[in-house]
């Protein structure tokens, strides 16, 4: 398998997120992740993103690394509280950082893909305006999106509204593992709805401001399979698939939530104004697919959604996620047939037991992981899937949310004590692949 096996215009890249790499907290207002990570017991070892990879001060070095590897594109997110003080008032210093970042990428022939929201909601909007639980959040988000389209839309033509709204809603408001750490089942559905409304409002602004660009949304896409052939397990798995995948894609394409999932939530009052779906279902240009693994599901009477996770038998990454490249192929084909939109793999990668030895990191397991997922990607393209690009998660090791700095996903190893970067064997393999060697 070589790069030339893929379509000529296919973009190979890598991806990051603002709070996970930037640091530079002195030049922005706080986000919900600042408060959450500084709350004892919320993250492993009490880790936080105050410094992270210090990308805010080292972005030029990081772009040089990307240039050396040879990527076509770079997906990164903008920190809302960096470009707008408290999420409301424009902060020119923060805006200038992203202006310089974009210009430097373009100088090096790297196409920028911008994600507007990768979980770092301005703390002020959470504390004073009730955050994602407030329907007005969609207007605040639209104002923020409009500002960025106006500042960068002349040079950046690929935009993503939200990263993994399922995680923001479910992990942030029901499970409580992510900021802001709520544990309220009903809240999570209100949040999901307001996230999708915010997405729609951003798309409306985009069409008005950036006439020659493309905009989409990225969600975590998971292959869901039932533990057994028992009818209850099969139905539980079908509903989980709708809660994770359908709930965040169907309303955008079809203007409604998945019917079976809605019927299963009889005890939840959603109270959705009908015209909300007119906002949510604005025409988009692509779906971003963040794929990592599958979920094996069985029925559980005691869970609010009537399911539980079962342990799968396949080899696992350091995150405990099964390595299942076939699931990527399956979801790409399914999405291609169901939604009939171009697709990008906006994240795919693995956390591994990386060790720095003699300034080298031998991560054959990551190389094999990437090769196997590249093969699934190529198979999907050969079978007619309109797939436009692939972004490996991540460019470099970073703050892995509740796991702190204990999990390493990067192609580049970061020594957090010195901030020195080291290309792992996987980065060198990727470089050779991109050179068609």
From TrEMBL:
E.C. number(s) listed in UniProt: 3.2.1.21
Keyword Hydrolase listed: yes
Enzyme class of the recorded protein, top EC level: hydrolase
A single GO molecular function term of this UniProt record: beta-galactosidase activity
Catalysed reaction, written as an equation: Hydrolysis of terminal, non-reducing beta-D-glucosyl residues with release of beta-D-glucose
The protein's name: Beta-glucosidase
Active-site residues per Swiss-Prot or TrEMBL entry: 347
Family in the record: Belongs to the glycosyl hydrolase 1 family.
Sorted UniProt keywords: Carbohydrate metabolism, Cellulose degradation, Glycosidase, Hydrolase, Polysaccharide degradation
